[in-house]
Amino acid sequence: VSVRRTSFFGFSSTHRCGGAILNSEWIATAGHCVDDLLLSQIRIRVGEYDFSSVREPYPYIERGVKKKVVHPSYNFFTYENDLALVKLEEPVEFRPHIAPICLPPDDDNLIGRNATITGWGRLSEGGVLPSMLQEVQIPIVSNTKCKNMFLAAGRNEYLPNIFMCAGFEDGGRDSCQGDSGGPMQIQGEDGRWFLAGIISWGIGCGEPNLPGVSTRISKFKDWILENIT
């Protein structure tokens, strides 16, 4: 999902963040992606691949938003509970390239699993924005290891269990600005993909010992289901 901000007068929109489809009416994204926007400023684009191409085999769909629910405990300073749900003005129809993602299992020990992250965020810190959706695999690390990695880079970070870290000690592959709100997804044993995390924050992009940090979705399943069902 491309979570977009409307330009002046609302005739067009620009990419701001990623998101994930939960059902035909609801999108998950990061709290910081929509917290400061009015409903009229948010546009949701699904089924997009290349922003610069109008001749894709499957067209994208863009919708306005009629409701946003930012997590009530979202903290603008620490990025704790950095999660929001956005309700589309009208439902989207699922197609080969537009499908919902499952919620994660409860037993959330995903340490060592390879997660796939996708987005249209910058290709390097302060670098260019791609027009095509990017994808990379990164391993999930325990919060203890994550804390030690940050310490090795000279950063003492507070990492409660609602955060989930992923990355390499030597860096190189990571999310970056514009990827926030997008999915960190894992393929379950049944072959279906589930939403392990929503990309939240990081220090730099792909730096050694500075893993990317996501909102751990298994900790928010009840809250999500209460709001979208």
Give the arrangement of secondary structure elements.
Elements: E1 2-6, E2 13-18, E3 20-21, E4 26-29, H1 31-34, E5 42-46, E6 61-63, E7 65-70, E8 84-88, E9 114-119, E10 134-141, H2 143-152, E11 163-166, E12 183-187, E13 193-201, E14 212-216, H3 221-228
Antiparallel strand pairs: 1-2, 1-5, 3-4, 4-8, 5-6, 7-8, 9-10, 9-12, 10-11, 11-14, 12-13, 13-14
Report the CATH topology name of the largest domain. Thrombin, subunit H
What is the CA-CA span between the terminal residues? Answer: 20 Å
Biggest sheet statistics: 6 strands, antiparallel, barrel
CATH architecture of the largest domain: Beta Barrel
Question: Helical segment tally?
Answer: 3
- Helical/strand content category: mainly beta
Q: Helix content range of the residues, please? A: under 10%
- Using DSSP, what is the number of strands? 14
Strand order of the largest sheet: 9-10-11-14-13-12
User: Which radius of gyration do the C-alpha atoms yield?
Assistant: 17 Å
Tell the overall outline: globular
Classify the beta-strand content into a percent band: 25-35%
- Taken in chain order, the helices and strands follow as EEEEHEEEEEEHEEEEH
